C-alpha cells in the first residue's frame, strides 16, 4: 500500500472505510453481472460457514479495495466484481463495510474475480504504476492485483466466450491454472473448483460462472436446494401415498378372500346338510347310505 504523490502534505492518519468513497459514480453493472455475483455468493456460503464456524470472513460484490491513497481517492482503489477474504470480521465496529482498506487490515483476498464486459484487455492490463503519466491515471488491473493487492487467486470470467481464466499467485507472480479433467479450476484453500455451468439461473439461460466441490458436485444455491427438497418431499409423499394405497388394496383383497372363504364355507355347510337329510331319508326307507 502506498501514499500517492498527489496526496496532500501534512497527513497525520490514513482514512478508514467510513471516510473513503464507496462508489465512483459510474454504472458498472449489466443485467448479467448482478445475478452472477449473487449466484457465486449464495452457493458458496455453506462451504464458507464450514470453513469459518466463527463467521469471520467477508465477501465483496463490486466493492472497492483501497490499496493506495490518491486524490481523488477512487483512483487508489480496484473494484473486483466478486472477492472473498478469509479470517476477517464481516463488519467493522458494528458498521457494514463500505470498502476493503488494505492499509487497515493487511490481509489480501484469497480470490478476486472480474467479469469482463469489454474485450478483456482491461482485466489483463499489466501496465505498472511506474508508467503512469498525464494521459494515464491508474495502473493496469492485472498489475495491481499481482503486485499490490495480491489475491491468492485471480479469475477473469467472460460470459460471451463461456470461459474463465484462473491465475494462482506463486512466488510473487501469477501463473495460469490448468483445468482439471472436469474442465474446472481447483481453488484448493477453499476446497472448491471454479468453472462454467451452462444452465438457467433466474430466468436466463447462460454459461454462468459457478462453484463445485472437490469431488465435482455442483454447489447449489438456497433456491436450488429448496427445489430439490420440495421434489424430495413430493417424491416421499407420493411414495407414502402409493404405499398406503398398496396397504388399502391388500386389505380389500384380504377382505374379498375372507368373503370368498365364507361363501365356500356356507356352500359346504349347505352340501353337508343336504347330504345328512338324504342319508336320513334313505335310512327311513331301510337303506344304509354307506352301502351305496
Automatic annotation (TrEMBL):
GO molecular function, one term: endonuclease activity
Coiled-coil regions, chain positions: 223-285
Key words of the record: Coiled coil, Endonuclease, Hydrolase, Nuclease
Domain Putative restriction endonuclease residue range list: 30-197
Residues in the signal sequence: none
Record's protein name: Uma2 family endonuclease
Species the sequence originates in: Spirulina subsalsa FACHB-351
Higher taxonomy: Bacteria, Bacillati, Cyanobacteriota, Cyanophyceae, Spirulinales
Amino acid at each position: 500500500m502506498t501514499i500517492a504523490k498527489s496526496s496532500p502534505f501534512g497527513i497525520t492518519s490514513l482514512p478508514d472505510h467510513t471516510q473513503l468513497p464507496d462508489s465512483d459514480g459510474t454504472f458498472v453493472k449489466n443485467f448479467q453481472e448482478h445475478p452472477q455475483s449473487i449466484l457465486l455468493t449464495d452457493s458458496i456460503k455453506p462451504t464458507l460457514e464450514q470453513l469459518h464456524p466463527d463467521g469471520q470472513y467477508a465477501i465483496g460484490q463490486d466493492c472497492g479495495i483501497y490499496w493506495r491513497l490518491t486524490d481523488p481517492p477512487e483512483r487508489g482503489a480496484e473494484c473486483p466484481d466478486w472477492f472473498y477474504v478469509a479470517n476477517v470480521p464481516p463488519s467493522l465496529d458494528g458498521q457494514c463495510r463500505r470498502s476493503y482498506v488494505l492499509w487497515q487490515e493487511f490481509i489480501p483476498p484469497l480470490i478476486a474475480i472480474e467479469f469482463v464486459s469489454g474485450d478483456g484487455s482491461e482485466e489483463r492490463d499489466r501496465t505498472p504504476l511506474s508508467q503512469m503519466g498525464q494521459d494515464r491515471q491508474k495502473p493496469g488491473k492485472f498489475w495491481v492485483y499481482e503486485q499490490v493487492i495480491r489475491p491468492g487467486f485471480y479469475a477473469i470470467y467472460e460470459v460471451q466466450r463461456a470461459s474463465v481464466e484462473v491465475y494462482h499467485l506463486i512466488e510473487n507472480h501469477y501463473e495460469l491454472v490448468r483445468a482439471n479433467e472436469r474442465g474446472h479450476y481447483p481453488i484448493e484453500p477453499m476446497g472448491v473448483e471454479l468453472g462454467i455451468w451452462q444452465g438457467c439461473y433466474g430466468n436466463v439461460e447462460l454459461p454462468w460462472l459457478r462453484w463445485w466441490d472437490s469431488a465435482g458436485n455442483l454447489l447449489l444455491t438456497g433456491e436450488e436446494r429448496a427445489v430439490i427438497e420440495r421434489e424430495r418431499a413430493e417424491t416421499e409423499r407420493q411414495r407414502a401415498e402409493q404405499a398406503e394405497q398398496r396397504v388399502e388394496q391388500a386389505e380389500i383383497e384380504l377382505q374379498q378372500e375372507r368373503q370368498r372363504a365364507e361363501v365356500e364355507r356356507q356352500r359346504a355347510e349347505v352340501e353337508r346338510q343336504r347330504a345328512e337329510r338324504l342319508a336320513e331319508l334313505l335310512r327311513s326307507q331301510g337303506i344304509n347310505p354307506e352301502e351305496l
